[in-house]
Amino acid sequence: MAFNFNTTSLSSLQKKLDNFIVDDEAQEADHENQYEYFLGILHDVCKLVQESDGFAPDFEDITLEADRPRSKDSTHWTKRRTTQTPTSLAQINEAPPLTSRLSRFRGDVAVSASSDTPLANTIYEARCEITSNNIPSPIGLHRSPDDALLTLLSAGRYKNCTPTMQCFIPNEEDPFGTRREVFLPLEDLAYNATIDAGRKLVFVGDSERVKSFAWGAPGIGGEEYARMRAVHTLASHEWSGPMGLLSGGRLARGGEGSVGVWNIDALQTRGPKGKTRIGGKFDTEATWRDDPEAIEASAGSVADAVIKLEESDFSIARWHAHPAAPGVMLCTTRPYDTQNYSCLAIDLEHGGKTGARYLGHGGEVEQYYTSEGDPNVFLTACSDGYARLYDVRHPLPVLTLDSGNRTEGCPAAVLVHPDVIPSAYSFAPELPSRAEQKEQIKMWDIRAKSVVYELSTMNNSVVGMEWDAGQNVLFAATECKNMGRMGCTTEYRRAMIPRDQELGYEEKLESPPKQRDGGGDDDEEEEEDSEGEDMEDDDDVEDEEYQGRFWPKNANHAESHFGYLFDAGEHMLCSYAFKEHPDATVLPPYGQATLHSYHWY
């Protein structure tokens, strides 16, 4: 077999795609034929890259050329493919006896975990205690590499206009541990953060500046502060992207065509009281905040160095440290603005050179995730509805997980290796036009290439997920779509309590949890029955029939979908703590959503 491939074949495929995209009649004919022509061309592109991987002398040129047609035409595909019908749920199996009642198992899956892998077996059987913390409207979730701190960025206070940060210091008794809250003195909401575990610093930034806060004295065993202390202010108006740490105690922040770098130990601090101004005065008059007096007026320290990217027009929107190459970042941009779906491995230690290119995304990468269990792979969650597992040595994904059933996005996914067994959690949000879609976290057995079970997100959408490997805890920052900016809930009705829960959950613990059978069609019938009831005119219903609990009218599943009736009714940070012998009674309290609400905005 010959491996002297070059870019000629790719140019020919690109020409075919260009002609196809502008030919409406050809597109309609291909639509009736299940996109056979369009997908065939993309398949040929992938096949060419795969066959030349590691053999062709011009392999870098091939991956560069292959990325162009895939990037250019991914928008066409993601728009067209939403007409595909998602597969229904498989037959539900009887769950293991210690499983959480907020889980729902799939059928006919020969899982990789067994009694010989006790930790993996605990996770694969969903043996978990579920707790929650109410939070402001979540933006992003971040975890330190040593699991010492969990940081949530959010929008809080009046109309969700105040940039807010919650920091959780876990302990053995409580996954959330100690909670610290900071109302950030920034001009805008903060969308980016990174954690320096050694210095016990959290860096958080808006589009203009970066602030750092300390949660304790540096070093192992250092004093834990009673409140977060302001330490640094950095001027980063040229770089508004993600942040990360480099060797030698340096902080890096990505931007368009370049990366700003600061030497942390050489930076001016805000003094023992956290009030010393750094740099000149920052102009706060243009802010949209209702409380401009709360904005700290330091202009901040300028960058100590600037790294120019080899691809000067590449704007870094999201990145993650390479699992095996220090100083290398896996980077993506915002494709809907640039039509660039590239995922690049950029070496910040050697002049911003592009070291590798990873293909296959059809939307914006929402999250990267790596695991110490395998330093050669990384997982991406993409807005096209797929989670993709990549081997860093190859440009194409080794496995693609259909998290969104081809119709939804995938805003969050994490990669874990309990007992060295590759596994993943992913989330797909609601899709109002399809009743069979559920707001739930899917647990994947990567070796079996199948979903093992779903975890309830209590009718909330997941904004971000993190995995604490030290305590075997899955954290999920969730958003209640029925809660407005004033904290009012809308579009709720009285809950229809399943018969096996009418006496209350505690009384039901004396008997084994009742597992429900049924695939996707049965779920749809449940929801149709629920929606068919007259839920508006029910003043004559006695309180004991719904026990003061309410259910969203637009919920993506019926009250009986899981073995425990639960609705969050607010934004929540949830923890799923996996244990060999969990306490089945550890579940969040039912949400406080009300039947009637008022619009204040």
From TrEMBL:
<protein>
    <recommendedName>
        <fullName>WD40 repeat-like protein</fullName>
    </recommendedName>
</protein>
<feature type="region of interest" description="Disordered">
    <location>
        <begin position="499"/>
        <end position="544"/>
    </location>
</feature>
<feature type="compositionally biased region" description="Basic and acidic residues">
    <location>
        <begin position="499"/>
        <end position="519"/>
    </location>
</feature>
<dbReference type="InterPro" id="IPR015943">
    <property type="entry name" value="WD40/YVTN_repeat-like_dom_sf"/>
</dbReference>
<dbReference type="InterPro" id="IPR036322">
    <property type="entry name" value="WD40_repeat_dom_sf"/>
</dbReference>
<feature type="region of interest" description="Disordered">
    <location>
        <begin position="66"/>
        <end position="86"/>
    </location>
</feature>
<feature type="compositionally biased region" description="Basic and acidic residues">
    <location>
        <begin position="66"/>
        <end position="76"/>
    </location>
</feature>
<feature type="compositionally biased region" description="Acidic residues">
    <location>
        <begin position="520"/>
        <end position="544"/>
    </location>
</feature>
